[in-house]
Specification:
alpha/beta, eight-stranded mixed beta sheet, four-stranded parallel beta sheet, 14 strands, 38% helix, metal-binding, iron-sulfur, gluconate utilization, EC 4.2.1.12, 6-phosphgluc_deHydtase
């Protein structure tokens, strides 16, 4: 199939723009393989420390004639998505031995839950936890004991952090191992209805907790299509998972066999040790190239995925020497149709999506339509098209079959030839208030353009207080500034979704503008988010005042104040609010001080590394 001209154009532009940095990156990982730290270069003392507690695997690791797999895990049993990983280490060691290999738990990384911290002070640690995870991954792999790696992580900042860290060891063959979503619980629309009733004071906390507990009710990833499940989708679009493994529920035979397949496969794509020469070497740094990054963007757009990846994808790309910007994503969005309607863009959750055909269907549709690069180096086959397979158990063994020829539920999943919408629902907004992104896939088109007076806040809690006092009962553009990476770590402001939704349902024209983030489940309110440059670094939001007339227009890609140009230019900015201490926020001051703008990924680590 001929590649779509926009996909071809944007990919070519990224390749050309990235040529110097990508070349430097590939040189780095080539040197790491040939002259970096690995088992043959370790001293006897180094090596003895590395296998001292390896029990039955000690002789094999010491002998150095078989692959040793480093496992980096984000296990904890507070996160429902990561709780299933508790049993994986012992399973992985057994599966490795089946292939004559060994495995060691190289290290653990923190895994905070945005669902728990949403609206709390600790949400200010969330984005920078990605940098901490990346550094933790680098520490885990730095011991030089490994010829391959498995990454165990699912949720919001965890997969991007694992990838960024592992890409600095891009000479290692690496596979990501998911654990799957929890079974469906309370319908998402009902959950939102209950939240809005609570915001209006019509029900109490106990009724709200009952609804939330019915939604988030067991082990596995939350089932809405937020950042966590968007992560899994993107890993399949980049060919870094065993095909079709993203959305298989935990705790069943198929889930276990997919983990076994990942372990077996990583032993087959290494460079080999001892007498075992490389025959199918597939290092992570070569798998994640410009085409793979474009595929991830295309998948995000085609499925209506999380706005958080407007931050994460540029950061992941930079770690591989690739420069991706918001103009690239905006241009791709105009060419890629929306073919999935998963909550919050539709009624069904990821379990319904998987039952309708899921990622195998999506991959086949996008590759065959020329919207995704089929010729990337995946961890499993000759092309991405080989990933359009659905796993199942046949005679107690893992087997694969072709993706269904047609969607099994067209309310959830449709072909490229008959999409839900002709574009990917991600818009770049530009104007005298800066650059921002808006997710339009869940916003009614009648609300894509809002002109209304601003009410300006420096804290989300002040917005909640104003809502409860009835001060927002009007056409309004709610602006929450000083929420960028340098100001306070760029927290998600998801708890504002319910009160703003109530205002919209009451018939008011409502929009939201912030240099912070909205949830990966951004919904029906037109929201200009990630505004750059941020107010704390002198961005224009700092000059806004209550009553300023703001225009937010996804149709034209505009974010601006409608004011006299000379008066606007002459204004001075409001001072940033003082930074409160507590909840560990003071420990992240160095990251806030060194971080770059949202469009570059909001990372301190990558900026300081010169990437």
């Amino acid at each position: 199939m001929t590649l779509h001209p926009t996909v071809e154009k944007v990919t070519g532009r990224i390749i050309e723009r990235s040529r110097p940095s990508r070349s430097a990156y590939l040189d780095l990982i080539d040197r790491q393989r040939e002259a970096g730290v690995h088992r043959p270069t370790l001293s006897c003392g180094n090596l003895a420390h590395g296998f001292a507690a390896s029990g039955d695997d000690k002789a094999a690791i010491r002998g150095g004639k078989t692959m040793n797999i480093g496992v980096v895990t984000a296990y904890n049993d507070m996160l429902s998505a990561h709780q299933p990983y508790g049993r994986y280490p012992e399973q992985i060691k057994i599966f490795a031995r089946e292939k004559g290999a060994t495995a060691q738990i190289a290290g653990g990384v923190p895994a905070m839950c945005d669902g728990v911290t949403q609206g709390q002070d600790s949400m200010e640690l969330s984005l920078f936890s990605r940098d901490v995870i990346a550094m933790s991954t680098a520490i885990a792999l730095s011991h030089g004991m490994f010829e391959g790696a498995l990454l165990l992580g699912i949720c919001d900042k965890i997969v991007p952090g694992l990838l960024i860290g592992a890409l600095r060891f891009g000479h290692l063959p690496t596979i990501l191992v998911p654990a799957g979503p929890m079974p469906s619980g309370l319908a998402n629309k009902e959950k939102i209805r209950v939240r809005q009733l609570f915001a209006e004071g019509k029900i109490g906390k106990q009724e709200l907790l009952d609804a939330e507990s019915a939604s988030y009710h067991g082990a596995g990833t939350c089932t809405f299509f937020g950042t966590a499940n968007s992560n899994q989708m993107m890993m399949e679009m980049m060919g870094l998972h065993v095909p079709g493994s993203s959305f298989v529920n935990p705790g069943n035979k198929l889930r276990q066999e997919l983990t076994r397949a990942a372990v077996h496969r990583v032993t087959e794509i290494g460079w080999g040790v001892g007498e075992d020469s490389a025959t199918d070497y597939r290092p992570l740094g070569h798998c994640i190239d410009e085409k793979a990054i474009v595929n991830a963007v295309v998948g995000l757009l085609a499925t209506g995925g999380s706005t958080n990846h407007v931050l994460h994808l540029p950061a992941i790309a930079r770690a591989a020497g690739i420069i991706l910007d918001w103009d690239d994503m905006d241009e791709l969005s105009k060419a890629v149709p929306l073919i999935a309607a998963i909550y919050p863009n539709g009624a069904g959750d990821v379990n319904y999506f998987a039952a309708a055909g899921g990622m195998p269907f999506v991959i086949r549709e996008l590759v065959d339509a020329g919207l995704a690069h089929g010729d990337i180096k995946t961890v499993y086959g000759a092309s991405l098209r080989d990933g359009a397979q659905e796993p199942y158990i046949a005679q107690d063994r893992l087997a694969f079959k072709a993706a269904p020829a047609t969607s099994l539920d067209e309310s959830i999943l449709k072909p490229v030839s008959d999409p839900f919408k002709p574009d990917g629902g991600l818009r770049l907004l530009k104007g005298n208030l800066g650059r921002a992104t808006m997710k339009t896939s869940a916003v009614d088109q009648s609300r894509w353009t809002i002109e209304a007076p601003a009410l300006v806040f420096d804290d989300q809690n002040d917005v909640m207080a104003a809502f409860k006092a009835g001060e927002l009962e009007r056409d309004v553009v709610v602006v929450v500034r000083f929420q960028g990476p340098a100001a306070n770590g760029m927290p998600e402001l998801h708890k504002l979704s319910s009160p703003l939704g109530v205002l919209q349902d009451r018939g008011f024209k409502v929009a939201f503008v912030t240099d912070g983030r909205m949830s990966g489940a951004s919904g029906k309110i037109p929201s200009a988010i990630h505004v750059s440059p941020e107010a704390y670094k002198g961005g224009p939001l700092g000059k806004l005042r209550d009553g300023d007339l703001i225009r937010v227009c996804a149709q034209e890609g505009v974010l601006e104040i409608l004011a006299d140009e000379l008066e606007w230019e002459s204004r001075s900015a409001a001072p940033p609010p003082p930074r409160p201490l507590g909840t560990g926020r003071e420990l992240f001051a160095m990251l806030r001080h060194h971080c770059d703008e949202a469009e570059m990924g909001g990372s301190a680590m990558l900026s300081e590394a010169g990437l």
